[in-house]
Structures are given as structure tokens and as C-alpha cells.
Amino acid sequence: MSELTKPSKLAVVILAAGKGTRMNNPEIAKVMYEINGRPMVDYVVDVAAKLQPTRIIAVVGWQKQSVIDYLSAKYPSMEFIDQCEQLGTGHAVIQTSEPLKDFDGDLLVLSGDVPLLTEQTVKALIGYHRTNDSVATILTAELDNPVGYGRIVRNQENNVEKIVEHKDATKKQLAIREINSGIYVFVKQKLMECLPHLSVNNAQGEYYLTDVFELFWKHRWKVSAVKAIDAIEVIGINDIQQLEEARTIMATRTAH
User: Number of structural domains, the chain?
Assistant: First the structure.
């Protein structure tokens, strides 16, 4: 058994700081929009809690108090970190480096706006990560219409060679239907080694978590990917229409 496949502790970081500019109401934190009477972030934390991790940390920002009040009442052991400035996903995870400095194990990064994700899919992601000697494993999905999403480019060993953003993709890469969901599990020590090297050298002026993969590949560290069986699980809620669609899907699930 190699060093990476030993049973490992798990910590979960949930990114929940976003403003949700397309959601119509700036008074409400994006992750607090409700689906069937529960904030969407509640479904994500529920999945995380079922994994029985050592720690669950939510990175909060916009309208943070409502998020903290709701989640701390329901999940008393949850921890919260304030991302004072929302400078991207990489910046959000950088905020956890100090609180997690003594944690040794795997770090699962979830988005607070992906309420249809299931425990079964996340367990499959972590299981594959641990049995495959990966330093990082990406949850992916195959979409009929992958426009706008980063594409997953695999190598001959079926591991991830690169993630190409839609706007940077060649014609051949645009034909790829496997997309990055933004849900990952990392060997925490390796991730924390690379986070300080992220830069804001991009159009948005933000620290992107996906940029760590470039550093992983430079080190020749293995990055794997697991495809979600049902692509709907990884779709983030970015506007009111998607929120309504998620409500319909959730209602159907509840009925079953």
C-alpha cells in the first residue's frame, strides 16, 4: 500500500462567500436562496456532514451573518472563515491555510451553490482519489452543451493533463464534453504547498483555484478525474431560472 492510499482523515471546505449578482436580490447571500424551504447551502453541508469529516469549514463573505446564524444553529461543530474581499476561489481556499495548518489528510472542496450533489457521488470521488494515488481528483460531468465550462483534457493514462477554459480552447478541445465541476479532493499538504504561488495574472484579477493544477503538473503529481453519473448534480445555481429548475428536481427526488 503506497503512502497516499492509507486511510486518511478528511476535512471539508465549503465555498459560500459569493454575492450572486444574477439572483435579483443583493440583500440575500447567494447560498441562502431556498429550495423547498431550505437554503441551498444546507443541502451541501448535509452531504459533507454524512461523510463524517474531522472538520467542516465554510468560507463566508457576502451577507455572511445570515449564513453563519443558520448553519451554526443546525451544525454546531461547523467552523466559519470570513473572506473579507472576494478575490476568487483560490483566495477563498488560501483563507483556510492557517486554520488547517495542523490538519493532515485529504481536503474536499465543495461549492455552496451546488445543492443537487449527492453523498453517493462525493463518496465515489473520495474513494477513487484514495485508491488511485492521486494528489488531486476532480469531479467532472459530461454535458450535451458544455459552452462556457472548462474542458477536461486527459492523457493516455486517462489522468487529467490540463483544464482548458472555454474561451482558450481550440476547435478540437471545444468538442470535449467533459467539464470541470469545481468540486475537488486534494492531498492537503500538497495543495497548501502550491497555494502561495497563485497569482492574479488574469482578466478578472482573481486567484483561481484551478491554477494550482498547473503547479501540480510541473511537479509531475497525478491529477485524476471522476465523472458524475448524473451531470445535473454538479450544476451550480447562478440565476433564478436555475433555482426554479433545481426546485423541480428536488421535489421529484423527494417524491421518490
Answer: 1
Structural domain that includes position 191: 9-141+182-240
Rg, C-alpha atoms of the chain:
17
User: What is the predicted pLDDT for the residue at 22?
Assistant: 79
What CATH number does the domain containing 57 carry? Answer: 3.90.550.10
Quick check: 50 and 6 in contact, CB under 8 A?
no
pLDDT tens for residues 169-204? 999 999 999 999 999 999 999 999 999 998 887 777
Q: Which of 22, 55, 151, 154 is catalytic?
A: 22
Listing DSSP states for 229-249 in one string gives SSGGGG----SHHHHHHHHHH
pLDDT at 30 over 90: yes
pTM exceeds 0.85 for this model? yes
Determine whether 55 is an active site residue: no
**Residue 253, exposed/middle/buried by CB under 10 A (0-12, 13-18, 19+)?**
exposed
